[in-house]
Predict the 3D structure of the following.
Amino acid sequence: MPLDSFEQLYEFADAIPEAVGIAVAGGADPTVLEALRTAHDRGWVIPYVVGKEPEVRALGKDVRGFTLIDSAEPAPSAVALVRNGQARLLMKGQIATPALLKAVLDPAPGLRTGRVICQVVLMEIGERRFLLADTGICIQPTMEQKIDIMTSAVDMAHALGVECPRVAVMAATESVTDSMPETLDAAELQRRSRSGEFPGCIVRGPLSFDLAYDAAAAVKKKLAEPDHAIADIMLFPNLLSANLTVKAIMYSADCRFGGILCGAACPVVFMSRADTTATRLNSLAVALKIRDFQGVKGNE
């Protein structure tokens, strides 16, 4: 069974019995306010918009039903709303990523869990859906960090309806070579998966993008397990490869996508400040589906 589609996620969000509080760090952004407007009107969320209130109101957007919280430090103020239980989700608005992460990772008032903070993106191209990680945070993850990132992505896949997701550990080639250390890590992750170390998923690697995406390519290259070419999760070796891949797809393919930060005490709706209203709404729909899933939520 494939990952939930965005249509399915919207239907799920429409059916939730009670709107969920969401704290928005940096609300002076028209696409953020537009996404919140739609989500509020559909009964998904109760928005707490944190930032400089005059700047938020100056945008001229409809903020009826929103709670505007004037703050010169929107990130810690938004995180505090999650800590005190007013909000169950956190959303990145018009604020720099380092400022948000500083508040999330603050040892005392933050949302740390001991898990690696990483971005997982749900990508939908036609009928094909897959997760990509980590596309936004870890620059050069260690082996242990890769395992933690993979765990978050697998947990997210479980929450999105796949009982045993197929994980493709990405590289430029399917051949293991000392000159490409990421292929060594990929082969080790595959070996440890086959020994039973990672229950709840199947790990293959190293795999190039064509072998992770297209079963026909796997057949042509005589891969032993061509069915794994339809990967549910693509685990990248570093931020450079992941970010370039996801943005290339976003800007060149007819696709839908949404991104979440995993590893904190709640899902964080997290995309670029350049993203559209539709993408922010997609990300909200993903967050609502996974908000109660322990693996994404972290170990509190």
Remarks:
- DSSP finds twelve helices and eleven strands in the chain.
- The radius of gyration is 19 Å.
- The domain at 114-259 is CATH 3.40.718.10 (Isopropylmalate Dehydrogenase).
- The first strand starts at residue 20 and ends at 25.
